[in-house]
Prior knowledge:
Layout lengths: L2 H26 L16 E4 L2 E5 L12 H14 L14 H12 L5 E4 L2 H12 L5 E5 L4 H4 L2 H6 L3 E5 L4 H11 L6 E6 L11 H10 L3 E6 L25 E6 L9 E4 L3 H10 L1 H5 L5 H14 L3 H23 L11 E7 L1 H13 L2 E2 L1 E3 L9 E6 L6 H19 L11
Parallel strand pairs: 2-11, 4-5, 4-6, 6-7, 7-8
Antiparallel strand pairs: 1-2, 3-9, 8-9, 10-13, 12-13
Amino acid sequence: MTTSKQAIRSDLAKRLSEMDAVGQLLKSRGLLHCVAQDERLDGRTITVGAKPLVHFGSCSYLGLETDARLKASACEAILRYGTQFSSSRAYVSAPLYAEFEALFARLVGGHPLVVAPTTSLAHQSALPVLIGERDCVLYDANVHQSVQAVLPMLRMQGAACEMLPHNRLDLLEERARALSAHNDRIFYLCDGVYSMQGDIVDVSALRALLDRSPQLYAYVDDAHGVGWLGKNGAGAALHDQQLHERMVVVLGLAKAFASAGGVIICKSPDVARRIFTCGRTMMFSGPLQPAQLGAAIASANILLSDEIHGLQRDVLERIALFDSTAEKEGLHVEAPSVSPIRFIQVGREEPTLELAAQLQNAGYYTNVAMFPAVPHKRAGIRVMLNRHQAYEDIRGLVHEAAWRCRRLLGRPSAIESLHA
Length: 420
């Protein structure tokens, strides 16, 4: 076994062990692997441990999962085509695929696209096809784990992979220039909207950097940007529906789009064709099922209509309310960009767990973020804002979080615990 293979296996074993330990700890505190006990869901609340909680853990930013039009379209698809279409798309696709792909192409400005069963499977299909053994990969330290999961495969193909500090496009340019002499292409892997702190990549700066660096390519996972941001909800990277010729964007359908799947957006029809033909998970994974396609078609029609403006405005108003209330309450929140993801950084793991448990006892369901989702001693509470939440829900959560941070940490804001 080569040294590189040994290192990859050792790193994977260590990561799995750490993840298991964190998972067991969170589960023992009732903060992981919970099961909602509701007979019906309205999007606003869930019942966990027989206790109704306001749901601040949902990524359905536009609240479309309870929309009657999506439900009716999903049910109609089942009645017409059955509960499943059990065939690889390498052989034959369900009838609704053509309608959905045509609608989604309009949503992203007509660019060529490939629909995958999930965003994770999209990455597993696209990246090994796009990146060759004479290429180099630079990836943001905070790029989504579903992207980082493909790195061992890329290394096995011969591509060198190097991590860059988060959101340091200046260092990206420096490293791309240094690596260009010895590599055919340099691929930069990043998120459009980062899933923990909710910060947004500087798309204008990234496009300008691509213009200055002819060997540089960008691959952007924008699953969290879809719907609430951009023209027709096209997201952060495609906010104006323009796509740089050396950029590939992956959009997620399982969050604000209220369906399932991932969509790979390419500039070149030939690149899209190669991913669809050669991507492993395109050949060997199951397709989107009729109900999912039916819901996706209804969602696309909503985002393509004038209704999108009101939906996006509702989300932005809730973000503004959260931020203004946090400022008033003296609660420090990681808010580097205007996004529906807000991060209350506590620092140490134990007070983070206690804060999450106390918020749950007070009637608010939030997400605990600990290593490996965030770096060691940078643990915190992730809050997702969406249209289901009432204004009083948001004010109540912020008030409880601020009060409990002061009580737990003896400080006016959670972030100061980092210096404890």
